[in-house]
Model the fold of this input.
Amino acid sequence: MSDFYQDGVITNFHNLTNRKVEELEYDLQVFSGRRSMGLILPSLFSELEGPALTHIVDELTKVPYLEEIVIGLDRADRDQFLFAREFFSRLPQRHRILWNDGPRLKALDEELKKENLSPNEPGKGRNVWFCAGYTLASRRTSVVGLHDCDIVTYSRDMLARLMYPVANPNFHYDFCKGYYARVADGKFNGRVGRLLVFPLLKSLQIVYGHSDFLEYLRTFRYPLSGEFAMRTHVLNDLRIPSDWGLEIGVLSELHRNTATRRICQVDIADNYDHKHQPMSEDDATNGLQRMSIDITKALYRKMAILGVNITSESFRILKATYYRNALDMIDSFENDARMNGLSFDRHSEESAVELFSGAIMEAGQAFVDTPSEKPFIPSWSRVQSAFPDMLDRIHEAVEKDNEGDV
Done:
């Protein structure tokens, strides 16, 4: 049901009726006659050894409407790739694994690097980018969904709700973002969203002035969620970061390329939990500290692209403004927790805000010090302009990896 409480920048669908998953899947099977559907799963090999992905695959075996599942596999040697082929073999849908560390895809990556068309660093963004290329090369789907492989509370109705707005041929949406409450084990989760992104977006508007883009981002209930679905043609022109700024980068590209009336968000789960990142207070290259720096840099880059004059001096003002807004939000979260019988550790919340305050300054310094940094992976449209046969060659390499000797 659409958001009738307030007029937002994008359409918001609430989960009000609790339709049975079988009803949703029946509709999606009908829709698949006009809009074929696929799924991208970016994964580390280590996730194959945990319970979350095993359960996700168990759930996906019951999904009747998917034409194709594309799995991006990172940090896997030959034996681990062969293990992955066996691990995913129980999927009844057509499925292909991109062995990103295998010799065939690495050789193609080297060609792209020579033309500065390859991702600069490994990570989820790079994984998703190659999966998007294969999805375009496969030409089997007109709608594609994406979600992470560490969701410990996964159920297949999450996927059905995510796909529904884009798959329904009577709807006009090109992109759908999933959201959900971040509550588990009797406490609030989602620290980066609650304590960094939301107060930072508000602070950016205070310091740099009103922005349609910032208002657009603030409309999303959970902009950092890793679950979204889109019409496959959208993948052609996406320029995404290769780091933890992926989700913000995707939303930024949608804002640039797509009318907001064709973007929506949907409540996909009453209960959601996944693998939690450590704070990593002493290591800016890992954990929530690395994530917060990458996300903040992604926002600075977009503001600069929009013509905002971001200077070293303004970062100090931004940090102070953010700190005050974040502390005010902590007050609200504490009251919300008490009303709902949840535990609340104010010390850890304020410690996170202090960490994120430092990340705002560190990201700002990195933004100023590296003005020539290439922030985005080139779009597949650009790659195809330079290498007209690259998608076909990626398709051929993946087919050989999945069906032949490696």
User: Anything to note?
Assistant: Confidence is low (pLDDT under 50) at residues 1-7.
